Amino acid sequence: MVSAxxxxxxxxxxxxxxxxxxxxxxxxxxxxLLVTPYPKPSRTLTLRFSDIGLDHSWEIDVxxxxxxxxxxxxxxxxxxxxxxxxxxxxALKPFIDVIPGKVLQAAATSFLFLFMMIGNQHSPAAIxxxxxxxxxxxxxxxxxxxxxxLSAALQLQGGTLAKxxxxxxxxxxxxxxxxxxxxxxVGEMCIHGNPSGVDNTVATGGKAxxxxxxDYSQPPEVTHLADFPELPLLLVNTKxxxxxxxxxxxxxxLLESHDGITNLMLDTIDKITTEAHSIISSPDFSSAAxxxxxxxxxxxxxxxxxxxxxxxxxxxxxxxxxxxxxxAGIGWTKLTGAGGGGCSITLLKPNLKPEVLQGLEQRLSDxxxxxxxxxxxxxGVGVLWPATTVDELGRxxxxxxxxxxxxxxxxxxxxxxxxxxxxxxxxxxWREWVPEDDGGR
Length: 441
Prior knowledge:
Layout: E1 2-11, E2 21-37, E3 44-49, E4 54-59, H1 65-69, H2 86-96, H3 102-118, E5 126-132, H4 142-158, H5 170-192, H6 198-205, E6 208-212, E7 221-225, E8 231-237, H7 244-257, H8 259-281, H9 292-310, H10 316-328, E9 331-336, E10 343-348, H11 354-366, E11 370-376, E12 382-383, E13 388-390, E14 396-398, H12 401-406, H13 409-417, E15 428-429
Parallel strand pairs: 3-5
Antiparallel strand pairs: 1-2, 1-12, 2-5, 2-6, 3-4, 6-7, 8-10, 8-11, 9-10, 12-15, 13-14
Helix pairs in contact: 2-3, 3-4, 3-5, 4-5, 4-6, 5-6, 7-8, 8-9, 10-11
């Protein structure tokens, strides 16, 4: 089993479109992929993603191996890929078109393309079962998390990736994660066409990244923030659909009609991001409860949100969440991502009274919002091999397909396979990743 986190943008959304910096961080909501071999002589390949209703099988031997083996087409685990080959995508099309719906087709394309590239015609028959605790379509990097899981699992299965172990040399750790990230980026291309590479970089390395993109014809500049602290976060999903393109267009329109004022707001967001980066990167930084550094980060979150409101990309539901949080006095809140709906994040203050937090959560639930208590700046991709867990009586047993599929909701999945298990499961993570200058890939 492999797992990878989702992400939130903590500072800098919308300004990043205009060449400013932004910070994105991993959250403890994650995707989990269980790989179960079929008994021989089966040659079946099955992808199950019950959260979106995908359950489809292919026969390995009838897949378009000839097209992928043509001269100049095949790539290997140590390669990187900057664009998808139209001829290979065309060869996969008949195997994808039988699946109904664009969302399901995109997920299947990502999986099948990676399987054909990383694997080979002699790859073992297996069931790939995906569960995710990340809200889908909410701007939290769910597709990148899935792509990282697929990349890691297929390379582990093919023997081209080593399980992380205590004492693994830093250069080997970096090489392994770079390979996972390279192929996760390819999986993201299958879904989004031209992704930034930021989401899969966060899902691979965990913690946080500072990213900036001056030229959209080039990959972004990405710096991994290995010292980003793990901080308590309240994530609230408005469940209000939104269009990223429409929200970006709002800022562009404001820039055209009030260019001087709008540029000052974008520059201020950039200064907020730069100051947050400076605070976190300082050798004197403290994430202890009540630390002045945490208060400063919280204040920057609140200021950043105020400017986003002035840019016109908030929504009444987001403002209602902020109002409820401010009234409860539990932390600092802002929208995350494109805005216009989607999610809000609240950096929680220390030493909160349980009854205050519970009261807020009840009010959020009563008004139709979906809340998640999560952690900011957690671990990246990890592996649980063998995929076992320990029950209440201390007995270790295999995590089966049925157990995994029957886990009920976020809590059920986390209780069964979650990385925060208190020793019940032996998850291992690659650490000490310092991305090279490869555009976050």
